[in-house]
Amino acid sequence: MDGFSDLNLFALVARHRNLAAAARELGVTPPSISKRLAQLEQRLGVRLVNRTTRRLSLTAEGEIYLANGSRILDDLTELEQLVTSSRAEPTGLLRVNASFGFGRAHIAPAISRFSERFPSMKIQLHLTDRPVSLQEEGFDLGIRFGEVPDARINARLLLKNQRLVCAAPSYVKRHGAPAMPHDLTRHACLVLRENESAYGTWHFARGKKSETVKVDGPLSSNDGSAVLKWALDGRGIAVRSAWEISRHLQRGELVPLLADWALPNADIHAIYLERHRLSAKLRTFIDFLGDELQASVRSA
């Protein structure tokens, strides 16, 4: 095997963390993948993966080989595009992770339009109910809300966004509107169980003043769409992102509450692991995605 074949094979195995899945993508048998991986480790003189019966994990040497090897593969792709005068037409595979609600509403339609414009690109969109590790799961790009806590992660702001407290007019008519955040303890709040955030804890700020409220109510879910539906039905007070409820606010189906209090930042970012610079395919996709999301806000 040549070095680039080794790199491509290892990148594929690292992305799937499973020999059978990597073999299916290549159209070969798992034993053949295992044999090639063993030959690569023998040639390098180090172990690159830890094998279990169901899943692989990368060793420290494997992480180094993957991180630096991925940049080499991207450089090779860009070189080939430059030589063939097709740099403006990115090629290759991108694996993208996003949340179910935002992914269905905005990322999937944007990918459809991207595919029409750049037919040489392959995009794999994987939707999850909570963020996953790009490195451990082999994703090139993730769509995230709020602050980016890990300084090792590169992030680009795609869209400014805020979270809003809201309820249906029918609920407000029956139960009144909270005047201060602590009034929420006397209301039926629709609680979303997501990520690793404290369940039912809402954080507010106004100027230098902050207030944390432990809310509760008869209905809760791990799905934001379900919470929104309950809010529209007048079942309680919810916290939702502006991108999701803007049209309902415009139609009067929901009304904003506690408008002079701010909730934690919910800006939408594209995050990626590459340390030094973006590959052509990733840069083109992020640019396109940012333009698409901005356009969707202007047309809303």
What is the annotated CATH architecture of the largest domain?
Answer: 3-Layer(aba) Sandwich
Q: What name is given to the CATH topology of the largest domain?
A: D-Maltodextrin-Binding Protein, domain 2
Number of strands: 14
Q: What's the structural domain tally?
A: 3
Global outline: elongated
- Side by side, the strands of the main sheet go 4-3-5-14-6
The proportion of residues forming helix, as a percent range, comes to 40-55%
User: What's the gyration radius in Å?
Assistant: 23 Å
CATH class of the largest domain: Alpha Beta
The number of helical runs is 10
Structural class: alpha/beta
Rounded mean pLDDT score = 84
> What is the name of the CATH superfamily of the largest domain?
Periplasmic binding protein-like II
Main sheet overview: 5 strands, mixed
Strand content: 15-25%
Task: Give start-end ranges of low-pLDDT stretches.
Answer: none
**SSE ordering:** HHHEEHEHEHEEEHEEEEHEHEEH
The N- and C-terminal alpha carbons lie at a distance of: 53 Å
